[in-house]
Amino acid sequence: MGENILDAIDETIHAKVRLGIMSLLTVHGECEFVFLRKELQLTEGNLGNHIRVLEEAGYIDVTKTFVGKRPKTTCKPTALGMEMFQQYLEGLEKIIRMAQTGKPEM
Amino acid sequence: MGENILDAIDETIHAKVRLGIMSLLTVHGECEFVFLRKELQLTEGNLGNHIRVLEEAGYIDVTKTFVGKRPKTTCKPTALGMEMFQQYLEGLEKIIRMAQTGKPEM
Known about the structure:
The structure is a homodimer of 106-residue chains.
Chain A lengths: L10 H4 L1 H13 L2 E2 H7 L4 H13 L3 E8 L2 E8 L1 H23 L5
Antiparallel strand pairs in A: 1-3, 2-3
Pfam family, one (chains A, B): HTH_34
Keywords (chains A, B): DNA-binding
Protein name (chains A, B): Transcriptional regulator
């Protein structure tokens, strides 16, 4: 099967929660922390950890502002993040096609 | 978006190595330990740990025989494993479609 089928699986994205974050950011363009937390049914701490991993990898930008006295945290995918996520999706599709057709991808 | 898009992501399968194992077993029907180790470029210990997780979940059967004096370990997906893997692939496809069309799946 030549190269390792798992090579395209970027662990920075593959972790379940981070896959959810990148998917929602791709659909919505940008999301508030509160929205992500509710959609993915996570604790603040858990979501915060995963957002930090994506931010440190340069896959998302995180901006913190205030609406009145209320802090507002917004996440937005970077160009790098979008590109890596597309590559990741293509790698995943390749594995899915392989698994469903029962034929190894040459 | 109603239910959590991550609900279908079975962590027993989603871990990168275990996704690779289930994909190869689906393509080949059954695989020897040595084959999996080479294809996925893993150490024996690492592969052994992941195989144990899948076996304990009832997703694969592991049989140990001898060819002459050489031990031979063969892995085969169970009916449950195949079913759970199909559900997992469908959930993954849903996320990929959502991310690529930019439209949340109702």
